[in-house]
Write a structure and sequence with these properties.
Four copies of one chain form a homotetramer.
Chain A (H helix, E strand, L loop, with lengths): L3 H9 L14 H16 L4 H4 L15 E18 L13 E8 L5 H14 L3 E12 L2 E3 L3 H13 L1 H9 L6 E10 L2 E9 L6 H18 L3 E4 L12 H6 L2 E10 L1 H8 L3 H18 L9 H12 L6 H4 L2 E9 L5 E12 L11 H10 L10 H38 L1
Helix pairs in contact in A: 1-2, 4-14, 6-7, 10-14, 11-14
Chain lengths: 416, 416, 416, 416
Amino acid sequence: MTDPEDLATRVREGELRIHELEEHTDHDTAAEARRLFVEGETGTDLESIGDYTFPAERADPNIENMIGAAQIPMGIVGPVDVNGEETGANDGGAADGEHYLPLATTEGALLASVNRGLGVIRTAGGADARVTKNGMTRAPVFRVKGVAEAAETVEWVNDNFDVLADAAESTTSHGELLDVEPYVVGDSVYLRFAYDTKDAMGMNMATIATGEACEIVESETPASLVALSGNLCSDKKPAAINAVEGRGRSVTADVLIPGELVEERLHTTADAIAEANTRKNLTGSAKAGSLGFNAHAANVVAAAFLATGQDEAQVVEAANTITTMDARRREDGTADLYASVSLASLEVGTVGGGTKLPTQSEALEILGLRGGGDPAGSNADALAEIIAVGALAGELSLLAALASRHLASAHEDLGR
Amino acid sequence: MTDPEDLATRVREGELRIHELEEHTDHDTAAEARRLFVEGETGTDLESIGDYTFPAERADPNIENMIGAAQIPMGIVGPVDVNGEETGANDGGAADGEHYLPLATTEGALLASVNRGLGVIRTAGGADARVTKNGMTRAPVFRVKGVAEAAETVEWVNDNFDVLADAAESTTSHGELLDVEPYVVGDSVYLRFAYDTKDAMGMNMATIATGEACEIVESETPASLVALSGNLCSDKKPAAINAVEGRGRSVTADVLIPGELVEERLHTTADAIAEANTRKNLTGSAKAGSLGFNAHAANVVAAAFLATGQDEAQVVEAANTITTMDARRREDGTADLYASVSLASLEVGTVGGGTKLPTQSEALEILGLRGGGDPAGSNADALAEIIAVGALAGELSLLAALASRHLASAHEDLGR
Amino acid sequence: MTDPEDLATRVREGELRIHELEEHTDHDTAAEARRLFVEGETGTDLESIGDYTFPAERADPNIENMIGAAQIPMGIVGPVDVNGEETGANDGGAADGEHYLPLATTEGALLASVNRGLGVIRTAGGADARVTKNGMTRAPVFRVKGVAEAAETVEWVNDNFDVLADAAESTTSHGELLDVEPYVVGDSVYLRFAYDTKDAMGMNMATIATGEACEIVESETPASLVALSGNLCSDKKPAAINAVEGRGRSVTADVLIPGELVEERLHTTADAIAEANTRKNLTGSAKAGSLGFNAHAANVVAAAFLATGQDEAQVVEAANTITTMDARRREDGTADLYASVSLASLEVGTVGGGTKLPTQSEALEILGLRGGGDPAGSNADALAEIIAVGALAGELSLLAALASRHLASAHEDLGR
Amino acid sequence: MTDPEDLATRVREGELRIHELEEHTDHDTAAEARRLFVEGETGTDLESIGDYTFPAERADPNIENMIGAAQIPMGIVGPVDVNGEETGANDGGAADGEHYLPLATTEGALLASVNRGLGVIRTAGGADARVTKNGMTRAPVFRVKGVAEAAETVEWVNDNFDVLADAAESTTSHGELLDVEPYVVGDSVYLRFAYDTKDAMGMNMATIATGEACEIVESETPASLVALSGNLCSDKKPAAINAVEGRGRSVTADVLIPGELVEERLHTTADAIAEANTRKNLTGSAKAGSLGFNAHAANVVAAAFLATGQDEAQVVEAANTITTMDARRREDGTADLYASVSLASLEVGTVGGGTKLPTQSEALEILGLRGGGDPAGSNADALAEIIAVGALAGELSLLAALASRHLASAHEDLGR
């Protein structure tokens, strides 16, 4: 009984439910039957959606009720030139050398803009990038009777990190518990667990490990678990706790661009770019009550996430970026441009999640970062650093465009 | 000279630049040549990326340097049951009846969870959903000499809305200027233009129209344009200004679920769900310094955006959601569950951007919302309402899972 | 029975309650009896607290259970030099000329610092200051059954501003309703009423007027009032809605200081001050997840509030300030300093509240701003502008101190 | 030459500057001369301001250019009933038993409202209160060349806490360095130093100690100090970093009030209060983009700060409070009210600053908390706990008033 038409009919007639199809046939036939059913119900032709090119079974860990695939155009920018070598007191970055960065998007002009920025960065000798903090977090919320029990719970947690680490790490071969930070609000106690999850983005690993640790907390303290996530994690929401304390990788990338290069290639000046950045990305975002002090870092983060199989919904906090642009004045009065991006909570992995799907896996191979790194965690670090340089290129290019248009109109003004 | 191998060689040898390929051959061959070049440079095999199924030329407005496509698994949930009929004093919603909602994601269990929530909503008689505000914004920043000129500029803008509307609307056949709100920070003046962009998401329309209006501002006031976006828009950044004032569609969806249904289908109680929501989504997010008071609305928004060709980077603010869950007590002491989601700044469109690509276009057809609506804007309104109900289902399902696990352990506690 | 010892005894013996004393004697004797009682209970001597110098009855509208007064040292800074004259297209400010500003504080060095800044401002020719927005707000929250009723309520409110204005303004001889902005979150509808309250800070006026308007809303729509303040006002809490949309007066002050003056009087350079401001007040506050992008504006606001009888608890939002400092480069390569402060929600009044108390009233007289202005509202506008210039002076002085220390150490660095 | 008239004349004639008077006479005469000068310049009579009752010299550490004092009415509320006893696993609070709390304010009805709440708390058996975190912070900002140096600096700081602690603690006999947390934004490195400052609020102590530690950082790393405060402290600004991580004392207070008591004394129900709290303090503040999830905690904090000599400008962050109100259902279906306040960053001291002034010192004596505690820090802890209970009483009383008014109108509704 694996004829897709028959299966679709049985769904239509209520004999089968739409999510039960995989129990009766292979995954591709199930997807086809589901398409037939939906086409019948909605009067549509889902030919393109059905024209996916991977075995449906490979997507089994990633989706239910599959009908096919969305095809998002993917392009390439680069090379992304990263200076990661170790130098003296400096441990170096995880990424080094030149990398092509695949980006998937439907936003016209994005790749052209990022590519322009990357070209300028290359001519300037490449960008520096460093992961300055790393920790995937999960923060359960517990109920206590009141503040006295809350204080007792906090005290127990502060005194028993090792006990919690043993429990948490018993569930994972790779993850390490780095920290447990307690927060009290009335009769709610939140414990923010942070893990080194190596090359995995690590949300599931952190959740399972934290679940185990919660059982200890419940047995040793008066606290009773209400929810394994109490939103101080904070996952898929914009939150100052991530912007301040980080989540996943905190990564910074920067470049110093000679004034001459700014003029030749970006058709503006360091001063004009710095002014646009200050009025828009710093003062403007301040006035907007924003947690994002950048121009469009989310564009690069979202496109790189799509291409490499990251969790698209995490773009919400992964794109949290402060962009700085300063005119560094030289003795002769001219100025070079110092440009940086600092992403506080970039959650990325090179194993698990969507990274195993065919197109996503190939995209990671383009970067040379498919699978686990050596040492563990270095591939995810490198991915974070390269995305950061991509975001830096995007910021540079857009701010230069704004500043040069302004310069142009300033020139017209003078001509009046 | 359209042999892709030859073109790849010429790129490798520096004769052609990677973005110039489309000038020398058709789009598909250009993409192939680019793949060959990247494969050579990186020692990879990009077969899956190259196995896209649309004419590359159709993606020309959406990407540069194309090498192929990312294939993201797409599934179906639903039907989404929306009560949109007009009733008395009530104008009704744009969406009405049952709709299948396509979602593209790599997050396992997401569709199953949303589907469970949608089933409960259907049994409860469907959800209500309404767009309560609509306006796509663009906020340029101007430089003035100081506060005196700033005050003069603000006064002129407040007195000349019609002049600005004429200029802005001269650039568009559909868009209408709704409002211009001035903000002053020292010698920077920000003007937040808001437009009704009908069925288009409208960012480009708003940008072009605002550019035209800026010329009037520059000629009639002392203000000089620094950047066409001054971040009070605020695009692709989490910002309170969007959470408070809205951007794109502000949409709310809700449902009242009988207590019996909560117990039978969600295996918990209205009280337990309300408690989990308060401790996690309200108090937890408050403590986290968050702009997102929900569990995982971003999951549904991101997956619907991917499937239907929306701008993935706008998930950052589009997912901005407050979820409320209340136990509405009945006379007999039992309680029903009132559940709602309010998305402040959901930027969606059914025309333009990525909506024309084949798989995305088919996804909109499944919803019956491909292209412009009648009246204009009604398709985008309906899309916003259906996504909101999807997000509501996701919130319900996850909070019920948290609450029922808690109930289970509470029962164990009693058994001790 | 007005012997204070007897009254204290009766309180001690439970015959009288501590707040009932004014029913049995005059206000000063009641305060004395209360002191005697507290002294007895706590073994203290409250001589200084009892040594207040105003008739206790004058404080009757301001306090209950009075025992005396806190004496906070008050000093004077200035003159504050404000250029408020009307010039061409420019309507001018409410404050003009030189004013001494009284400040009450226990923070040593504050007045010296502000005074230094004011001296530099005077030498630079004075500061400009303008109120760019004015509106005291009150935002009740209503309960509705759900989103359909919410949409109906919003529509009614948007269509019936005049009806609400008539109701609101029937309760006040001075106040004018400027705007009613609706916000929907699930089954809660918030209406943010904004009033021109002239020379009164206006919180009470706005509350009473809004209460009257709420009765109309309840009778004409399905909405039912839950609380007269729903925290979108937002009173005495730091909130982006105030930072973005303003509350009370939105006021900006600025000054352009010649580079020579920066060097002579502040012992640093425009570039060094601008750098300190960017790294501390813009980037630092951005990273801190702050709503305050300034150095210590709250010091000046709090001290001016205390001296002039404003509501001390409103310092929370009244101090909300963005400070900008830019080096404006001249043709010869040297730079002048442009400095500004923009206070989004400065709630001030010159009538009502604590302004009638003797020391506070005298402080307003020093400023020439006691009581109602002509035209109505101009005194409160002028007070806002002068406080803003005071805050500007405080920012200038502190940032210069930071920058000059840095310059000094930079010089030492060069000397090594 | 100590005749005040003569001195005033010399100021008027430019022979003396207004801040130099103390060099020529005693402090009281200097203040008198200054008043005479200001009276002459402004045509005022400053009799009340001049009628202060402490030796001007005692205010010398607190103010410059003194002309007198602001007299703010002070009253008394209480007793504040705090259960601080140690019980089993529970370390107990610093405050225990009954305390009268002095409050200085010009906000009529505030003390009556707080007193009502305190009465209910007493009848309910008193409130619990605990300091759950303690640390006064100062966060300098350093300049580095770029991200490589930033990473190097962070690494050095993480490896050398002891070196920094030695340097910092060399400047203070009481303070202890608890933590140094590094944050990187481009070429700026922020180090957030946290200290246990015992019974002092500790801002000055922390600043001096941090200054010493900064010299080590500058000599051992490539980082160069730009400003001793880089706004991640964050002092006198509303900032998520304080709301999340705390500053000064993080303190929580709560009480469980029997349903009968809620009805008898507050004329409403636990359910109605919980509803008002959720719609106003949680959902309303969420929608407002607020960092303050309470009704009016700032009123109590500001009034207690004024009375006891705290830093009024710190009310900005000290009032940062999350209020929770829950109906705890009993088996019979009725509900008790659980009420709590959690203040994240309450900066208080019982030594230093304004605490030595006469009226302020007496106010601390009323509380039994003047000067240093035994053990050190316990007086400031107790002050934090008592203020928290005061804030709890204020929240209870206001929310009950809102809820009962609503109940009343609900009753009317039923009567229609």
